[in-house]
Amino acid sequence: MRIAKAGAVTAVLVLALTACGSTPGAGPVADASTASTPSASPSFSVSATAPSDDGLSPANLASELLGRLAEKGTFHVVSRTTTAGEGASVVTADLRIGGDHAGLIAIGGGRKLIKTGSAVYLKDATVTGDKTRPWSELAAGGQSSRPGRQLLRAAQVHALIGGAAHATTFQRGDRITVNGAPAQEYVVSIDLARATAAGAMDGYLTADTTSSLPEALTVRIAVGAHCLPVQLRFTLDDQTTGRADVTATFSRFGQKLTLTPPSPQKIASPATT
């Protein structure tokens, strides 16, 4: 009975993944992810175990997965970063991607961040110096505040998927379990110079943030039912900040999400600069 049950679960996963590669209108995701998937990509090598039965390939992995997220519209992220000597830090976020109402809510390190459209608000009394007005509207999309920038970046970790359009290697990995359900991992090595020059991972990695990183970034992308990304695993070997192991899991696809900016009475003025 156990063998039969396991086979049934595998069959369900295979059937779910078979639908990959057929998303109508799959393409770049706007705003919160700002990830693009240009048609031109570097030449790549495909391993002998590269998938041929589920429709995912180096040519469509990024657009397919980001397209599925865009169809769902909203999702939940738990991003755990482990740094040597500092332990683990966790950021939880809920995102709405695409359209005029895109944005996110993120919590981590005792701070809260709300992004609605292009406006970004950070709740951190150590920034404002006023416990009665702990919120600040971050100038230039939050780039002026290091804590705000770090929190926003961790919340938008899904943007790394866009870099798969610039992969130099592509391999089908293991079948794993994520959030209690089976998933198929794909291992891609992203050419960081090409990907960031194309803006493929904007929101998480941009051209001005990769000078201390290696030439390539290996990302393990787990795909679950309905061809949705359910987990990312990767290591950032940053010459400036050190080695960081990141695991991000995705869930609650398509659930209702309300994004409400803080009341003006709670916002310090002027904007953080």
TrEMBL record:
Residues 30-52 have a biased composition (Low complexity). PROSITE patterns: PROKAR_LIPOPROTEIN. Residues 27-55 are annotated as: Disordered. Residues 1-21 form the signal peptide. This is Lipoprotein LprG. It comes from Kribbella lupini. Keywords: Signal.
